[in-house]
Amino acid sequence: MNSHKKSLLISKTFLYSILAIAALLSIFPFYWMFVMATNTNEVINRIPPAVFPGEALVSNFTKVVNTIDFFGAMWNSFVVSSITTIGVLFLCSLAGFAFAKLEFKGKNILFVAILVTMMIPPQLGLIPQYIIITKLNWLNDLKAIIIPGLIDAFGIFWMRQYISSNVPDEIVDAAKIDGCSIFRVYWNITVPIIIPAFATLAIIKFMYMWNDFLWPLVVLRETETHTIQVALRGLIDNYVRDNGMILSGTFWATVPLVIIFLLLNRLFISSLTEGAVK
């Protein structure tokens, strides 16, 4: 019995050690970015490089603010990411509910067609989307990013799978017998059950929209409409590269993503472990 407890303790110690090392490796790039953001260019280029934070955090960030409209770009990114995420949560969960719990003609064919779109590189749709945005006169408008991002094939797939496995058909049938409309079954019964799935999809979509660079670069040409990723490009000078300033802007542009993840972390883990617990 004692030997069994000893072996169990050793295995747990080994497991936690591996997890601790993995956590440190995951955090290290963010820490290294912070270290570079707090040092001058001279210290960054020194060999061996600095491994502890310096004293140039404020000065580097001041250079960022003086070079680009940092706070305006952050606000644009926050508006785009928030509206798009909320729209995706509603529309994709509604579509996922329809595919999971409703019967209609061509359901399987339509669902397969949605899955096929996930295999198409988004770069192939760049020119057609640009033509449509131009005809709608949405260039240099945040609508050019928000509207195309409101529907997500992965979001529909994720919601359909989660609703199929976590919302019992008996509850849906009972609600229909009690006189609930289809939308009320979705809103009052399904939505409270799939909150963890909402958190997971929200993190994925918010991070994708926040980090998106190519499409905003194409359709947003005016400085006041730039998102943060496009604005950060303005920190790179062709002749003099101030790495401390660049990494300072990058670091502070990453902070909102960390906050969003920490806020939704518990629900995110819950959605991933739901099937294992069952």
UniProtKB/TrEMBL annotation:
The chain crosses the membrane at residues 14-34, 73-97, 109-133, 145-164, 185-208, 245-264. Its main location: membrane. It is found in: Cell membrane. It is a multi-pass membrane protein. Residues 74-268 form the ABC transmembrane type-1 domain. The keyword DNA-binding does not apply. It comes from the Bacteria. Keywords: Cell membrane, Membrane, Transmembrane, Transmembrane helix, Transport. Pfam families: BPD_transp_1. InterPro entries: MetI-like, MetI-like_sf. One of its GO terms (cellular component) is plasma membrane. CDD domains: TM_PBP2. One of its GO terms (biological process) is transmembrane transport. PANTHER family: ABC TRANSPORTER PERMEASE PROTEIN MG189-RELATED (PTHR43744:SF12), ABC TRANSPORTER PERMEASE PROTEIN MG189-RELATED-RELATED (PTHR43744). Belongs to the binding-protein-dependent transport system permease family. This is ABC transporter permease subunit.
